[in-house]
Every structure is written in structure tokens, then in C-alpha cells.
Amino acid sequence: xxxxxxxxxxxxxPALPLFEEAFSAFARGSVxxxxxxxxxxxxxxxxxxxxxxxxxxxxxxxxxSTIFVPGHASHKAxxxxxxxxxxxxxxxxxxxxxxxxxxAARLLQGGSDSILTPVQTYVDGVxxxxxxxxxxxxxxxxxxxxHAVIRVSGLDFETYHPGADAARRVGQSLRPIFMxxxxxxxxxxxxxxxxxxxxxxxxxxxV
Length: 207
Hints:
- The structure is a single chain.
- The protein is mainly beta.
- Helix content is 9%, strand content 29%.
- It has a four-stranded antiparallel beta sheet, with no helix packed on it. A three-stranded antiparallel beta sheet has the order 7-6-10, with no helix packed on it. It has a two-stranded antiparallel ribbon with strand order 2-3.
- Strand 2 (31-34) and strand 3 (37-40) form a beta hairpin.
- The protein is globular, with a radius of gyration of 16 Å.
- 29% of the residues are buried.
């Protein structure tokens, strides 16, 4: 919060993509590189600093979580899946152990022209697999003081940002509800500029 205190709240939100993307990137147990060493995403708190792709440590401003129910009718209707990335799928120790991601996870691949690509586009049925565990899975996403790419078990994933088109995707009537999910932020402009471009759905770079 603006006064430096940590606030925790539970809130119902519309089952719309813009809302769900804020909570559904990394499964419980995902290991994130922080200033203090590797830490499970569920153990992070606002104020902790995570390491970013450019080498700097940036403060966590907000952490969101939700319960994803594999096989739920609403998820099937929108083709939403969890994705399991097996160890060494993108090279040695990339990732260092398997990573379970949610529908909102985007992976950064490439060199100077790197773009953020939805994890689902890498599904090959062998090393990157769609999966539906038998029990509900807690998913997380986190927002830093600016949009960045962080290291999760050896892979580069983006932190949360509603996207450059957020103002178009959420109308005036829903905007107060959406911003109510982010205590301490006054408006969409407070998310800042996206750090990297995002690939259109279905476009993946060669691995």
C-alpha cells in the first residue's frame, strides 16, 4: 500500500480473460530467483526483490492467486490448460526442474528481438505438455514496480502487465472493479510501459 503496509484481500471478479490473466501464470511451488536466493512463489511477499533479466533486483508490488480447476466446463469452453515444461526442454537446466504454468504464462525467447510468447504455443506433447492434474491447482502472478522478465527455474518469464491494449479490453464500467484488484495502483497508467513486445497467440519462435 502507499503507506508501506501489506494488505491482503479476497475478491470475486468476472470470469473474463483480462481479469483471469492477472492470477494464472505460475503454479504453487514454482521457484523464482530473488535477491535472497531461490524462493517458491507462494512464499514471496510484497517488498521482496526478485532478480530480473537485465540483472537488477526489482521490488514485488503485488501478488495475486486463484484456484484453477482442471477440466472445469468453463475452462474447456475457452480451451484453457495448464502446461508442464519438463527439465532441460529449452537447453541445459532450462528449466532446472519441471515447471507447471497457467494460461497466462509468457516465455521470453530469442536475442535482441526477443518477444514474449504464450507458453501454450510451445506444446509438443513430449517436453512441453498440456496437463490436467486430478486436483485443483493454486496459480499465482506477480507485479513488480515495473514490468520485467524474471527467472523461474532457469526460464525467463514476464511479470504481470495488463498489456498495452488494456484500456480497450476493459470498459469504463468494469475498470473500477479491475483496478480494485490492485491496491495501491490508481489507474492503468500506473502499470507503466511493457518491457517487451508480445507475440500474437499461436506464434512461437524456433527453440
